Amino acid sequence: MLETASATDRPYDLLIVGGGVNGAGIARDAVGRGASVLLVEQDDLASYTSSASTKLIHGGLRYLEYYEFRLVREALTERERLLKMAPHIMWLMRFVLPHSKLVRPAWMLRAGLFLYDHLASNMTLPKSRAIDFRTHSSGRPLKADYTKGFVYSDGWVQDSRLVVLNAMDAGERGADIRTRTRLVHAERVNGLWQATLEDRTTGTTQVVQARALVNAAGPWVARLLADTLKIPNSKSVRLVKGSHIIVPRVFDGPQAYIFQNPDKRIVFAIPYEQKFTLIGTTDIPWKDAPGRVGIAPDEITYLCESVNRYFKTQVKESDVVWSYAGLRPLYDDASANASAVTRDYVLDLDTQNGAPLLSIFGGKITTYRKLAEHALEKLAPVLPAVAGASWTANEVLPGGDMGEGGFDAALGRLRRAAPWLVPSLAWRLLRNYGSRAYEIIGEANSMKELGDVLGGDLTTREVDYLIDREWARTAEDVLWRRSKLGLHLNEAEKTKVADYVKQKTA
Ligand SMILES: Cc1cc2nc3c(=O)[nH]c(=O)nc-3n(C[C@H](O)[C@H](O)[C@H](O)COP(=O)(O)OP(=O)(O)OC[C@H]3O[C@@H](n4cnc5c(N)ncnc54)[C@H](O)[C@@H]3O)c2cc1C
């Protein structure tokens, strides 16, 4: 069934294709400048790369080796900003870097960390320092061969929640956010984009108009140009697969580890979801079509070997409880090696043929906000609706206004306001929703009033919130992107969640 927007329907200022971090970030910034915005995402928000990252809000220590100073400086500045914008879903993490004689000399690590500490101005995170593993507690899980190393700071983020919060903020400011909606065709007609959208739930299509189009399709960026828009483009994207494994906790403490491999790559081991360790990543060139990707057995072996070189506790393939993989949509700079391809982004604006088209190549979770600012700066001369001043640098994301004293103080306040909340649930609600936890609790005065328990501490009231406010439509949305409860619930509980979501969204 084709539904065409009538001639009286006003065109949107901006049609954004892609509900990953870049599309959601641009939608938020643009609507805040007064533009009318439609964002379409073919699946769920953050279904692809933006939920498959290592989840670091980082400058990217290793990019210094590739002289990516612009990117590292911008990312370090953003790291500080983002940690303030969303203190519920992001936090400071200390990274322990053992020195291995076989890889990089100690002086090189020291010089790199010095640069990392000082490359951007006004950095407040604790600086790096040398540590002796024979006396420092972070040395306990390491093999005795490793006696010296360094510790430095970076940030950690619940990546898919970052995307959802940007979309939510955009939506609350008036953007039209449509998930499970695919752009299937678009052409320039009389100075406007005329775009056909397919609602993948109902199978219906609709034609809408927009003054400008943003191609934030991540791994699909080049295909969208060539196949959907039929626009030749000289820039291309290099898809590089990266995979992670999750195993039962290998070490205690809040610190993460960064290990150097003999192939000069680095692999992280990060405390994850209280009971687990997250290990990643790999860099595998990907030649096939974009889509859902999975980890290959040799990647699991590689990741196990990478951490087993350093940890006393040995990780086996059979320990893996979950894994995920994603495709980095990197700007193709013709590097020979997948690890060396630039992690910086390139914005390509096409105004030659009428209505503007902006395509985004590359980018990091960490730099999404700045990327959005640059994207709108680039569009502003041809799209006055986004010419307003940039505003996102100091505006918190939904739930980020947790009050004075940081997360711990906010948790104390929540526990006092709702003393009946199971402590682990109070913590989890605040970590995922920040001040919006109060909206979920609403008028409830007891655990019972939060509705039925579907599994663990997940209640129907929380799922209702995810459906009503965060576009959750399937159990997978709830268990793997709005949360990581999929790691904690058993199969019967997951089925209960699936049945409930189905019934609520029918
Ligand atoms: C293994 C790995 C580790 C990483 N680690 C980090 C890290 O620690 N820190 C960091 O800062 N960055 C990291 N990154 C990079 C970061 O994850 C990506 O740069 C970022 O998520 C890209 O976001 P995006 O919005 O461009 O793409 P995506 O998140 O892929 O979003 C694009 C969206 O467009 C949608 N789409 C495509 N075509 C259409 C269409 N026709 N209609 C509607 N929708 C469409 C897709 O469904 C998709 O959801 C990592 C990446 C990988 C793969």
TrEMBL record:
InterPro entries: DAO_C (IPR031656), DAO_C_sf (IPR038299), FAD-dep_OxRdtase (IPR006076), FAD/NAD-bd_sf (IPR036188), G3P_DH_FAD-dep (IPR000447). Keywords: FAD, Flavoprotein, Oxidoreductase. Residues 13-368 form the FAD dependent oxidoreductase domain. It comes from the Bacteria. PROSITE patterns: FAD_G3PDH_1, FAD_G3PDH_2. It holds the Pfam family DAO. GO terms for molecular function: glycerol-3-phosphate dehydrogenase (quinone) activity. Signal peptide: none annotated. It catalyses: a quinone + sn-glycerol 3-phosphate = dihydroxyacetone phosphate + a quinol. GO terms for biological process: glycerol-3-phosphate catabolic process. Residues 392-493 form the Alpha-glycerophosphate oxidase C-terminal domain. GO terms for cellular component: glycerol-3-phosphate dehydrogenase (FAD) complex. Belongs to the FAD-dependent glycerol-3-phosphate dehydrogenase family. This is Glycerol-3-phosphate dehydrogenase. It comes from Acetobacter senegalensis.
